[in-house]
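Usage example:
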Amino acid sequence: MVSLSSLTIACFIGIPLGTVLAIKRFYFRKTLLAIINSLMGLPPVLVGLIVYLYLSRSGPLGWLGILYSPTAMIIAQVILIAPIITALSNQIIEELHEDYRDLFLSLNAKPIQAVIAYIYDSRYSLLTVILAGFGRAISEVGAVIIVGGNIDHLTRVMTTAIALETSKGNLNLALGLGIILLIISLSISLLVMWIKSFSKRYAHV
Amino acid sequence: MRMSSKAPKSHMFPIVVKNLSLEINKKILLNNLTCELTAHGITVIMGPNGAGKSLFVRCLHGLTKLTNGGILYGNLPVGAATRGRQSMVFQSPKLLRRSVIENLRFVANLNKKNNQNLLELLKKTELSLLKDQHVSTLSGGEKQRLSLARALVSNPEILFLDEATSSLDPRSVSIIEDLMEEIKLKNVKIILITHDVNQAKRIADDIIFMNNGEIRETRLANDFFADPHSQEAKAFLKGDLII
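Running the assembly step on the lines above writes:
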């Protein structure tokens, strides 16, 4: 649930932001893109530490009281995933923009109409982006263990459970959880591949 | 009485181009163009490659900003307001990655037009049987016919065609030319770029001949083909000026 929630929020931020960065020209656009691209490789432990410092009792957002909660884990994961989704959607939409720019200008399409059309027409390619974001979210352990605290029945997710069971020496359980995680990840990859091949066959994209 | 949101057609004409210049990367691409186009007929812009024809049409449609000079549609300066009353068919078809009918619906929705006319347009462009096909499965001629159908969805007062029939099969050229003649009768001004001298002879009412970013001649088509004034136009018609 944590991974899906953070993925959803990151998509709502990343896809429109990536689209706007692809079709609008403004000062510092390239700088902003460079920053977003470099954020793709953020070390999860560092993100966990920064979010921890902000949310801890003495931190600037400590009054929220959300440290060691799923909300804190979602925040950390959104920080990790949103740059990936933004940068990859930006690349896809930029390519489409080469085809559509003159057309939309000629048609006097409003920016919001253009953004919706860009996202709609690249929806199958964006699925791969979403999968990349989901892969990052589901495999992430460093940040969520710091801000979530790995509390049983509250903030323990599969990756943190695997880390815990490995440290306890319960390798069979850790391996079992790992296999389940792998199956989930593989199933989603297969589903996206199927959707892409379906779209190639029927929608020719 | 309900007022139309558009100004009456007469307000878009004549099209007055005055001292239009365009400079990109310190290179002068259009140099001091001046001409006046009337509301009627088909104006064909001719000239060798690199003459600046496409850039001129982009400026007329408001897709490229001018460096100097101006374009007036009646009393309206070129811009979004005038572009909204025009349509353009590009040299390489610019189509949404959707089905044929969805491409038309997109423009109909933008212009709040009735979707019922779309099937009629598909029929005229002989695309009815392909209406649910994705554009990536269409041939070059079919794509260009779809581009023309889409351009007509918004009922433009001025239609620009940038080499819309180059490299098309004779049937597609014939369909597009027939449609041009039909919409010309509905008082739509057509501005067409073509390299095809025979096509220009068939359909042009007046000719703008360009070379090296400048207008060399602006004349009635019959006069131009009977007796071109400039040496460049003579060479072009003989097939000697190709650049």
